[in-house]
Amino acid sequence: MPGAHRLPPAAGALEPRAQQIAAGLLEPLLARGAGELVSEFAEPFAMQALCELAGWPHEDWQQLAKGIRASQSASFTKDAHTGAVAAGAFVGYVQGVLAAHRAAPAEHAVGLTAALLECSVTKAHSASSGVPAQGVGLEGVLTAYQ
Prior knowledge:
This protein has 146 residues and is mainly alpha-helical. The chain has helices spanning 9-12, 15-32, 37-54, 61-77, 80-103, 112-117, 123-129, 138-144. Helix 2 (15-32) runs antiparallel to helix 3 (37-54), helix 3 packs across helix 4 (61-77) and helix 4 packs antiparallel against helix 5. The longest helix is centred in the middle third of the chain and has 24 residues, at 80-103. The mean pLDDT is 78.
């Protein structure tokens, strides 16, 4: 399509899958002739695309959406306890995903998480970015923000 926006090359690999996700979510809305755009399209699309980009299990999108809603609600109501519980649940989820990627790297070779697990954070980079050099790699970066 002339003039259509395209993703940068690095993210372009996600585009065909994003189009499949969008089509799958739009089909029931179009068949019914109506629907609720945020809950039936925008949120599921964003979460499913995030799972694809990160290389996380596709079926986890609802769990991620629930966690984000809990975190947003805690933020809006200034409920520190609920916010801490939501953040802890997310950290636990990410740690589980990282463990699965490390246990079977060949099964999880695609996605941002796999790429980040191959990276390391050097002390020089750590000092320039303000991230404490607690560890090497993605795990160290995640624990620096806990």
